[in-house]
Amino acid sequence: MENGRKKNGIFQKFLNFVEWLGNKLPHPVTLFALLAALTLVASAILSMLQVTVEHPAEDQGTVSVNNLLNGEGISYIFSSMTDNFINFAPLGVVLVTMLGIGVAERSGLISAALRGFVLAIPKQLITAGLVFAGIMSSLASDAGYVVLPPLGAVLYLALGRHPLAGLAAAFAGVSAGFSANLLLSGTDALLSELSIAAASVLDPQYAEGITVAMNYYFIFVSVFLLTLVGWFVSDKIVEPRLGSFDSKNADEEAINNTDEMNPLEPVEKKGLIWAIVSVIVGSLLASLLVILPNSPMRGDDAIGNYMDSIIQSPFMSDGLVPIIAILFFIPGLVYGLITKSIRNDKDVADQMTKTMAAMGMFIVLAFTAGQFVAYFAESNIGLVIGVYGAELLETLNLTGIPLIIGFMFVTAVVNLFIGSASAKWAMMAPIFVPILMQLGYSPELTTMAYRVADSSTNIITPLMTYFAIIIAFAQQYDRKIGIGTLISVMLPYSIFFFIAWMIMLIVWMLFGIPLGPNAPIEYTG
Questions:
Q1: Among residues 254, 279, 37, 61, which one has the least CA distance to residue 151?
Q2: DSSP annotation string for 35-87
Q3: Which chain regions cross the lipid bilayer (predicted)?
Q4: pLDDT, mean of residues 356-374
């Protein structure tokens, strides 16, 4: 570990530079406010310069930049401000989903389920189990960050292994694997909404057919790839590098406290069983809304075959988010009633209220981000950049796989300085989705390439929201651990995840495999 603490090494100097530069960026709320203001100024300048482009869609004529600082533009700024906030695509999606997830989390269901899973698997599979559980924890949004890393550390310590190796394996699964899952989550809904909004600038009709499940096939297979890669990196690289554990710099309480490793109490097991039953029953009832002919949320059977009527249905577009919320809320309620963490309706309301209170920063961010996204669309700057950007890339002959790889590296670098996945995609989607559509690549592919690069580098950026919390967990076992040490531990995961995941995406592209239901690799217009 001592090598990871060198102050004057080249790699450490680079990490110190990244940390220094990242700290110079304003808060994301301020950043989007500045971007909105910059968009207004840019719209006025480009309009005065009479910048116009040919609309990429047929029979659309030329498009010019709208001046948002003239009389009509200023009127638009004030009259649209409330609507820009309310209609910000991720706002409703995230809040509705978190209402259900909040009950499941605060009732204790998610913590018990993750603990029960980790404790149930064989010792030789504990690393793979930790990584897998971390990846799957993205179903519960950010709950995995708080539950699994400290649990992984305690588990490894109890097994006589280095606790930081357990913490690292769990953190890698939770954060670097955030865009992989066997099921759809709020992340899919949030990013797809931003992609739909960006694609609609170029082709509204195509955008209407994009669903929350647009990357589902790819993220499903990704779970198994990342579990194997994380397992290999943990056992063959990270844990051997950490060496044997020396408890002299650890907190005595952390060493002696193994309560979290106690088996589930009978009441917790009972709660989990009935929660699982409620999920199964709820899922079956939800499926009846779409699988049977004439179901209320089924698509028009006349549009195509059986699968088309499901894929292009209200269930898959507008209905999936509330259904996800309900399928978290019901088992959370059942578990809470059985374990007595919920005793009446007031407890439920209190848990939902606390969940929404924790979303305060996101709501404030949504206000400034909503203004930027709306101004960017209204000004037509995104469309103009898309046309010019496509022409530039064509001039450089940067197409195909090199283009996608280049986009992924750009995303990875940006992620070092802007931690929020939704904030970055809100800023990048309006630019890159139209550009890549112009070059024949679908919004679904662009979104998946973004998700791969963003997730892989989450664990090495100090600006990621939960990075400081992970350091606090790690310092329980080594008081001297700082940002550089944690990054040096997590960097192998980031590199291997990025390379393996990128190769998988390239193979997917070469074979032309759909990324999800009705989600092709190529965009044909």
A1: 254
A2: HHHHHHHHHHHHHHTT-EEE-SSTT--EEE---TTSHHHHHHHHHHHHHHHHT
A3: 29-49, 85-104, 116-137, 143-159, 164-184, 214-233, 271-292, 319-338, 358-377, 397-418, 425-443, 455-474, 486-511
A4: 84
- The predicted-structure confidence for 438-488, as pLDDT tens digits, reads as follows 889 999 999 999 999 999 998 887 667 677 778 878 888 888 776 777 888
Angle, vertex CA 143, rays to CA 141 and CA 146, nearest 5 = 140
Tell me the sheet residues that pair with 64.
52
CA neighbours closer than 13 Å in the CB half-sphere of residue 277: 8
Q: How far apart are the first and last CA of the chain?
A: 54
Specify the pLDDT at position 311: 55
Tokens 């057919």 found at: 209
The CA distance from 404 to 219, in Å, is: 17
Amino acid letter, 313: S
Contact between 467 and 22 under an 8 Å Cβ cutoff? The reply is no
- CA 158, CA 150: separation in Å to the nearest integer? 12
Give the closest residue to 107 by CA, choosing from 376, 334, 405: 334
- Is 300 in contact with 309 (CB distance < 8 Å)? yes
Contacts of 75 (CB under 8 A, 6+ apart): none
DSSP string, 315-369: HHHTSHHHHHHHHHHHHHHHHHHHHTS--SHHHHHHHHHHHHHHTHHHHHHHHHH
Tell me how far CA of residue 210 lies from CA of 181, 268, 486, in angstroms. 19, 40, 39
Other beta carbons within 10 Å of 201: 20
Torsion of CA 100, 136, 521, 373, to 10 degrees: 40
How far is Cα 285 from Cα 273, in angstroms, rounded to an integer? 18
pLDDT of residue 57: 56
Q: Which residue do the tokens 């092709």 mark?
A: 520
pLDDT in tens, 399-408: 789 989 989 9
Task: Round to whole Å and give the CA distance between 51 and 65.
Answer: 6
Spell out the alpha helix ranges (H) of 416-466.
Answer: 421-438, 443-456
Mean pLDDT, the chain, rounded, equals 83
Q: Parallel, antiparallel, or unpaired: how do β-strands 52-54 and 62-64 relate?
A: antiparallel
Please name which of 196, 102, 184, 91 lies closest in space to residue 142, comparing C-alpha atoms. Answer: 102
The Cα angle at residue 449 between residues 391 and 33, in degrees rounded to 5 = 75
**Residue 407: Cβ-neighbour burial (10 angstroms; 0-12, 13-18, 19+):** buried
If one compares 48 and 201, the residue with the highest pLDDT of the two is 48
Tokens of 140: 């519960």
Span of 45-49, 121-125, 311-315, 427-431 with lowest mean pLDDT? 311-315
pLDDT at 349 over 70: yes
